[in-house]
Structures are given as C-alpha cells and as structure tokens.
Amino acid sequence: MQSNNNVIIAENIGKTYLSKKIQYTALKDVSVTVQKGEFLAILGASGSGKTTLMNILGTLDRQTKGKLRIDGVDTETLNDNELCLIRNKKIGFIFQSYNLVNYLSALDNVLLPLMISNMDTQEKIEEAKQLLSELGLSGKYQKKPLELSGGEQQRVAIARALINSPSIILADEPTGNLDSKTADTVLNILMRMAKKSNITIVMVTHDPEIAKSADREIHMKDGVVYKELRSYNKKT
Fold first, then answer.
1. Is 58 helix (H, G, I), strand (E, B) or coil?
2. pLDDT digits over 75-86, tens only?
3. What is the DSSP letter of 147?
C-alpha cells in the first residue's frame, strides 16, 4: 500500500536500448521510493545508469519494464501530453549545463515554463522577480545568461525550476560546472529553498562531498543499486 508521504515510487525499473541490432541494458530492476521533502543523492561512475534513472524519474524517458508512480499517478497509463503536464506542474529540472536560453533575460528564462503553459501573468512575473531576489539576483532581472557568472546562471536555473511550485526537483550534476565555493553556495541555496516549501530533491552527482548534504544516498554500478545509506551528516 502506498504511503501518502511517498512522492516517487519506482518498482523494478529496467531500461534497454536497441541500436543497429545491438542491445544495451542501462537499468536492471531498480526500485527506489522517495518521500516528500526528502533529499536523495544518486551516485555512480559514468555509465552506471544514474542519468538514465533520473530521466525516467522525470518522465523524460520511458522505462522498458517496471512501474513509476509520481504523486500516486501510474505514469504508464499517461500519453505524451499528459506526461508533459506532469513535468510542467509537478517537476522542476536543474541541469549541469544550466540550459538557459541565451537571447532571453534572466527573468524571461525563469518565466519560460509559464510561457509554455500561458500562465505568465503579472502575479507570476512578480513571483519570478521575488525568487531571483531571494537567490541574490535582484537588479539582474534583465541580464542575459552570458552576462552572468556560472553561479548566477545556475541560480537562474534554480528559480526557473521553482516557479511552478513543483513537489519534486530533479537535479543532474547541478554544481558540476562550478568551483567548490560557488558549488557550496548554490547547493545551500537550493536546499534552503526546497526545505522552505517541503520540496523533494533527487540529485545525480559524482561528488561524495555533495552527497553528504543529502538525507539518503543510493550508489549505482552497471545499472543496479548496489548500496544505500544515510548520509554522514544526518541522523538515521
């Protein structure tokens, strides 16, 4: 029976790719449950399957086998438009490469998810400005991405991920392009803002120091979860 506190339930997820008659299995019977407000770190070397798992949890890709439930909804029953709606309403994405649109201002980049759904109202514009201000970017609303530092660009990406008030943030190596000091600042901002709204964070990282900030870690190798533990700085 599903707990009302579980926002992600992945059961026996498998993913196999076919290319030029070559079969490659990226995930093998991976099961993960994530609770509301939890910060889960997924660690593993390149090719371990962690990014494939992240893409499936975010409904950016479909599993070959197994079941995925987001907020109690079985994603297997949804068509592509319905999955798009799930992503737009429930999930915020943060990527290592920021994925900002260079010809848009910082403010318009934050508003981009709302523009897609025709929800960029004046109230939401003010909310976007407030988010940028909380992230230390007041006065830089009209700056283009290339006029901002890497850390500032990632803060814009965090604001964009938060603008739809998602229940889940999926972050794929969000500090990978930042120096250690800036990475710590960005991570602390993300954690503070997520805690404020009880948002679940699932973060892919190769950095064990970053993972220490999480509530729980899962370690992947060859498409399977081979270890799970509570982070060193957290109580069990």
1. coil
2. 999 999 999 989
3. G
